[in-house]
Amino acid sequence: MKNIGFLSFGHWTDSPQSATRSASDTLLQSIDLAVAAEELGADGAYFRVHHFARQLASPFPLLAAAAARTSGIELGTGVIDMRYENPLYMAEDAGAADLISGGRLQLGISRGSPEQVVDGYRYFGYQPAEGSDHADMARQHTAVLLDVLQGKGFAEPNPRPMFPNPPGLLRIEPHSEGLRDRIWWGAGSRATAEWTAQQGMNLMSSTLLTEDTGVPFHELQAEQIHLFRKAWESAGHERTPRVSVSRSIFPILDERDAAYFGMQGQSRDQVGMIDGGKARFGKTYAAEPDVLVEQLREDQAVAEADTLLLTVPNQLGVDYNAHVIEGILTEVAPALGWR
User: Fold this and answer.
1) What is the β-pairing status of strands 270-274 and 277-281?
2) pLDDT in tens, 106-137
3) How high does pLDDT run on average in the chain?
4) Domain membership of residue 265 as a residue range
5) Distance CA 123, CA 160 (A)
6) SS3 (DSSP) at 155
């Protein structure tokens, strides 16, 4: 069995070819797609976070709204850029959304990716401390978030409060028990995956890695997962961690699918540059279901992960994306033993 969900970047554009021509379209359709995915039997609805872009940004109103319309599907992010976050305020928002969902949040966080503006986090009021960089700042924000999510008191109470306080130091409220164990780190390298395990976070690995050793993407990602699990065991954590990978998978079931993605059948790994270093990008899978089954059977990282996130073309609308998800759940997943 494998948890299967979708991951939406939440793009919108005023192009006549787009089904999402405004932020309102994207937000409302994101909620509708979460509902549709749950009805189809999918396990997760995840959303990307980008700032200064015509894409989804502040995730917690969306997650709370989707939680109110669904009952069982996991709701998550992939990923929240921690360079931009006030970790205490984030803990309040996350706690509230998680309580609304009944404990279904799965929050992917990370250092973030190259953004639309230069050092965008500075406009949010944050800048790295002297002697550190933006990646250090993201990890510092993360350390605070993970600490306060444990629910321990740390703030000295006012001796003359407006309302009575419980005894002792005060914690961030609302507190949602168990949320700390449902934090994932979006790791782009093998070394970062090992660091993720040491911090006791789940591993979220996407369709690119910020390193390239010359081996196929799925093999490098499978090595990353192996190193994560080995580091987790060495750290002595008591619970079993989760691991997700993202893939672009499109079953060719009708003429629409062929028109949209038929040419992607010849997709291959790509090597490019991110932040001045080499990066390897995974390929898109697009073929008839029987061909997809054989191709995916060879994907070592998908085999290793317990959670698969399907990247969806949200601008094609809710109905079409539900069609893609249904095709994978019914035509591909059972043949691979995922269902």
Assistant:
1) antiparallel
2) 999 999 877 899 999 999 999 999 999 999 99
3) 96
4) 3-336
5) 36
6) strand
Distances (CA, A) of 210 to 118, 176, 191, 207: 20, 34, 11, 10
Helix/strand/coil for 4: strand
How far apart are the C-alpha atoms of 58 and 175, rounded to whole Å? 20
pLDDT tens, residue by residue, 293-306? 999 999 999 999 99
DSSP string over 272-303: EEETTEEEEEPPEEEE-HHHHHHHHHT-HHHH
Count of domains forming the chain: 1
CA distance 15 to 264: 23
pTM: 0.96
Nearest to 327 by CA among 283, 301, 288: 288
Q: Provide the CATH number for the domain around residue 212.
A: 3.20.20.30
Provide the pairing of β-strand 74-81 with 183-186. unpaired
Query: For 265-284, what is the mean pLDDT?
Result: 82
